[in-house]
Amino acid sequence: MPPLVVPAQGLSRVIINLVTNACYEAFKTAEKSNGPNSGQVSLDATYNSEKGLLVIRVEDTGGGVKPEVRDQIFEPFFTTKPTSEGTGLGLSICRGIIESNQGRLYVEDAELGGAAFVVEIPAETGVSI
């Protein structure tokens, strides 16, 4: 894998935010259901050599992201949480950090049943995040 310079402040902020959101959703859903996969969060990092990308995937067993809000969740001040629990800035800041380094942050349905947030960062450029 080509070198990827990743100072703690940028990428760690993204990962912490995504994992925190995933835990919130997974545990919120687990309180309502005691199914075999309830309350789970998965973090995976791989290198896609064909595209030259570091791929970080954070999945949860929460309720997922409804299709009608997928285009809005990365906008500043948009939140699906109660007002007292979220500002709606986390995902917007995360996307800004990743995109400022020629990367991509998006959401899709998770294999675990909830949401999967995917970060793709070009590795061949020695990105500094």
Question: Keywords, please?
Answer:
129 residues, alpha+beta, Heat Shock Protein 90, four-stranded antiparallel β-sheet, 4 strands
Low-confidence stretches: none
Number of strands: 4
SS-derived structural category: alpha+beta
How does CATH name the architecture? 2-Layer Sandwich
Distance between the termini: 17 Å
What would you report as the Rg, rounded to the nearest angstrom? 15 Å
The ordered string of helix (H) and strand (E) elements is HEEHEE
The total tally of domains equals 1
Largest beta sheet: strand ordering: 1-2-4-3
Give the biggest sheet: 4 strands, antiparallel
Output mean pLDDT.
Answer: 86
Enter the CATH topology name: Heat Shock Protein 90
Fraction in helix: 25-40%
Number of continuous helical runs: 2
Report on the architecture of this protein:
- A hairpin with a 5-residue loop joins strand 3 and strand 4.
- Helix 1 (8-32) runs antiparallel to helix 2.
- Helices cover 27% and strands 23% of the residues.
- It has a single domain, classed as Heat Shock Protein 90.
- The model has no long low-confidence stretch (mean pLDDT 86).
- It has helices at residues 8-32, 90-99; strands at 41-48, 53-60, 104-109, 115-122.
- The protein has 129 residues and is of the alpha+beta class.
- It has a four-stranded antiparallel sheet.
- The protein starts with 7 loop residues before the first helix and ends in a 7-residue tail after the last strand.
- It is built from two helices and four strands.
